[in-house]
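Summary of Year 1 activities. Much of the first year was spent building the evaluation harness for sequence design. The harness presents a backbone, in tokenized form, and records the residue chosen at every position. We chose the following record to illustrate the format because it has been used consistently in internal testing since the harness was completed.
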């Protein structure tokens, strides 16, 4: 006898069939104790072979298991596999802040400030008394600058450095007559942000000058400064980061230098000076080697300037050009690589 049980749910189909034939299916424990077919009608009703599976519409209407034999018979005995969770995409390089680009300056994007430095793509080497500058100034707010520096061949007592000044320059770029800084000298005053001034290969300082004139009352020509020793590691990576408010952090070989580590501590007023100046004038990256004053004076105050040299490599700037020509973008550099 063939039973046609068309019900919306498999458990109701079995119950109806079992009831009409007087079959109590509780002994099957949901089909787990059916055993081999003994040929009886109740085995067929309770343990399979009598289920009309049309209600499943080819499996699309199975849903989750209701524990019945007909669900097991018609839907395969297991819950449908859940849809796999989408695999998140592998993150790519962090995008530049809005309005900023990544610049990898070529040798042609740099200029000799004085002396006879060696200009090269994404860096330079200064031998003896000399200096280098970018041709352009940059708004670095919300941006960063990365580079590697090698000070191993600089004699103690010699000042090797990299910092920013904010002069007014022409469309063709910086020239030596545009120089300004935050010191007390015969040059025009402007904001000076000393990422690193090194006393040879022994130690260095990071200093901020936002106020003209000398004195201990803030970031004057005396500076808000952090001193440190290299402890034998005179080749290292540096990363300079700026907040959109002008706040400034230097990371040197794992050391984090910020307002909390400087003396005196810079504050909101100093960040406001950086912000307004970088927006209006931009930051010109300047780097030189000279003799006359050095930080960390316990390292020594006299040395061999003609016999000293240092190098900057892998310079990468994330910002926007404020004055001067647009330097080579890092995307242009990447597009020239042949694999």
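For this record, the design step produced the sequence shown next.
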């Amino acid at each position: 006898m063939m039973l046609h049980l068309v019900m919306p749910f498999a458990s109701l189909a079995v119950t109806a069939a079992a009831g009409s034939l007087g079959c109590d299916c509780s002994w099957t424990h949901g089909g787990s104790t059916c055993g081999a077919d003994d040929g009886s009608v109740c085995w067929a009703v309770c343990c399979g072979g009598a289920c009309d599976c049309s209600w499943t519409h080819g499996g699309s209407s199975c849903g989750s298991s209701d524990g019945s034999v007909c669900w097991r018979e018609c839907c395969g005995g297991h819950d449908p596999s859940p849809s796999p969770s989408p695999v998140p995409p592998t993150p790519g390089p962090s995008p530049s802040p809005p309005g900023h680009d990544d610049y990898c300056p070529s040798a042609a994007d740099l200029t000799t400030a004085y002396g006879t430095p060696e200009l090269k793509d994404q860096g330079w080497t200064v031998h003896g008394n000399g200096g280098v500058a970018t041709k352009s100034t940059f708004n670095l707010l919300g941006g960063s600058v990365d580079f590697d520096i090698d000070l191993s061949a600089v004699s103690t007592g010699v000042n090797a450095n990299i910092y920013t000044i904010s002069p007014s320059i022409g469309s063709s770029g910086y020239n030596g007559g545009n120089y300004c800084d935050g010191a007390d000298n015969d040059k025009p005053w402007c904001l000076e942000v000393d990422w690193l001034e090194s006393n040879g290969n022994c130690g260095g300082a990071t200093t901020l000058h936002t106020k003209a004139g000398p004195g201990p009352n803030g970031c004057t020509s005396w500076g808000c400064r952090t001193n440190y020793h290299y402890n034998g590691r005179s080749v290292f990576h540096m990363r300079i980061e700026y907040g959109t408010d002008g706040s400034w952090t230097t990371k040197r070989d794992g050391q984090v230098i910020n307002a909390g580590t400087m003396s005196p501590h810079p504050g909101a007023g100093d960040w406001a000076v950086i912000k307004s100046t970088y927006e209006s004038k931009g930051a010109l990256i300047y780097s030189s080697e000279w003799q006359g004053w050095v930080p960390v004076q316990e390292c020594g105050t006299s040395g061999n300037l003609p016999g000293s040299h240092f190098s900057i490599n892998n310079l990468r700037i994330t910002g926007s050009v404020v004055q001067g020509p647009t330097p080579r973008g890092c995307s242009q550099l990447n597009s020239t690589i042949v694999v």
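Confidence is low (pLDDT under 50) at residues 1-20, 77-93. Quantitative recovery figures across the full test set are reported in Table 2.
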